[in-house]
Design a protein that fits this description.
Strand 7 and strand 8 form a beta hairpin. About 35% of the residues are buried. Strands 3-2-4-5-1-6-7-8 form an 8-stranded mixed β-sheet, sandwiched between helices. It is α/β, with parallel strands linked by helices and about 240 residues long. It has a single domain, classed as P-loop containing nucleotide triphosphate hydrolases (Rossmann fold), CATH 3.40.50. It starts with 6 loop residues before the first strand and ends in a 13-residue tail after the last helix. The protein is globular, with a radius of gyration of 18 Å.
């Protein structure tokens, strides 16, 4: 994501989109370890429960997501000031003792935010300036919505995974071509990956029980999760870090 920031995953129910999200986030957690701060917005209340106890926050409503994006805006300002002070262009260029962890904000069913102008504006800001600051987006939706995927945000989603789409129009909204509409219902996990052009790819099949097994050593207990969430909710103007020993 450092080289190709911000990901869009789109596809109809049963096409493999949810499994792809699970696979991507599980891989990031296992690969990055303590060098990743994960925030999840599960607006359908169906996908991200497996990441509770690992993600800094897993929220299920717009108010919770608004709290997260406000916090990320403050963090991006802080990181921007740090880059200026050190006279470097990217967080990876900072001295090791000053280098912050990567941040990933994953939002499932981002189309539900269509009427939430302030939240969408903040998400768009992350897509525009987040790369240099080490802050990245993973957005997903079942049905592409041109009202959400427009202008700056769409252009900044440099990697796109298009699973089965209902028609060529929807496919073109996601990847700019018709290929995703040609994927058959029986082809579970089949996608068009748009990175360097478009190519058909078969996604990995990571079941929920398998994901839980892979992630079990990364979870903290529920008591500490509740403490962390309560601290995050104290005051949106305060950034409070809690180290779990």
């Amino acid at each position: 994501m450092v080289d190709n920031p911000h990901l869009l995953v789109a596809g109809e129910t049963g096409s493999g989109k949810s499994v792809a999200l699970r696979s991507i986030l599980t891989t990031l957690i296992r690969h990055c370890g303590d060098n990743l701060e994960l925030y999840c917005a599960d607006l359908k209340r169906s996908e991200f429960h497996v990441f509770r106890g690992i993600a800094r926050e897993v929220v299920t409503d717009v108010d919770g997501l608004e709290r997260i994006v406000l916090r990320l805006q403050r963090e991006m300002r802080k990181r921007g000031d740090l880059l200026d002070a050190e006279e470097v262009a990217h967080v990876d260029d900072l001295p090791a003792d000053k280098r912050p962890p990567y941040i990933v904000l994953a939002i499932d069913e981002v189309a539900l935010l269509k009427r939430e102008k302030d939240v969408m504006a903040a998400v768009e800001d992350v897509s525009t300036i987040g790369r240099a600051l080490g802050v990245f987006l993973i957005l997903s939706m079942q049905r592409p919505d041109v009202g959400v995927l427009e202008g700056r945000l769409k252009n900044n989603l440099t990697v796109r995974m298009a699973f089965r789409h209902s028609d060529a129009i929807n496919s073109r909204i996601t990847i700019g071509s018709d290929e995703a509409a040609a994927i058959m219902e029986r082809d579970k996990g089949r996608m068009v990956l748009k990175l360097n052009g478009c190519e058909f790819v078969q996604g990995a099949h990571l079941t929920l029980p398998a994901a839980r097994e892979l992630l079990k050593d990364y979870k903290i207990d529920n008591a500490n999760v509740n403490v962390i969430n309560n601290i995050h909710n104290i005051n949106n103007d305060d950034v409070i870090e809690l180290e779990v020993l």
